[in-house]
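In response to a reviewer's request, we include the raw inputs and outputs for one of the modeled complexes. The two entities were modeled together in a single run.
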Amino acid sequence: DQQVKQNSPSLSVQEGRISILNCDYTNSMFDYFLWYKKYPAEGPTFLISISSIKDKNEDGRFTVFLNKSAKHLSLHIVPSQPGDSAVYFCAASAKYGGSQGNLIFGKGTKLSVKP
Amino acid sequence: EAGVVQSPRYKIIEKKQPVAFWCNPISGHNTLYWYLQNLGQGPELLIRYENEEAVDDSQLPKDRFSAERLKGVDSTLKIQPAELGDSAVYLCASSLYSGGSYEQYFGPGTRLTVT
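The model returned the following structure tokens for the whole complex.
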């Protein structure tokens, strides 16, 4: 049973518009969430994170929103650029328990930004 | 600052042969992770080290997989013997635990093909 779900395998957006990538989780013990970006033949690159004590975190063109009651988070990219085309992974971690600090990843969403 | 280094980048072997992957984490990072990534999936944790100690190896198939992290720096992941289903990308990551921050930094991965 997947604890972190990214239900959209792909997303296509026009350059300059907003990209919204979604992620749902099932484990209520998760308290830290991260987004990673991955280009082909490279490892995932850390993009942005959010703690469960916040509902929004912003870094330049990237904003992550967290809705704890819905167990849902989203990544907004505004404005989208062709260089943003990559696979985006959502990941979650729990602060307590035997798996403290371990990341659980979703399957990823492939974003294509068209010029 | 140098990132996580992995070698080799690509490896092709025949089934039943042994194979080893090497990882050098970011300097000063005490926590090291090995992940397995299958096509179309997110990374899945195999083993986690804190310094020299393997603190979570619950997902490591111990009948054929082994790992070590001597002196708490470099790490080696070994498969012996390899099976066709082991074809995947093996990722190494490192982090510096800083009380609530769980960002992990990934290497480029080793793509293993077992024929």
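As requested, we also summarize the result in words. Chain B touches chain A at residues 4, 6, 31, 33, 40-45, 48, 56, 91, 93, 95, 97, 100-109, 111 (CB under 8 Å). The CA atoms of residues 48 and 56 of chain B lie 5 Å apart.
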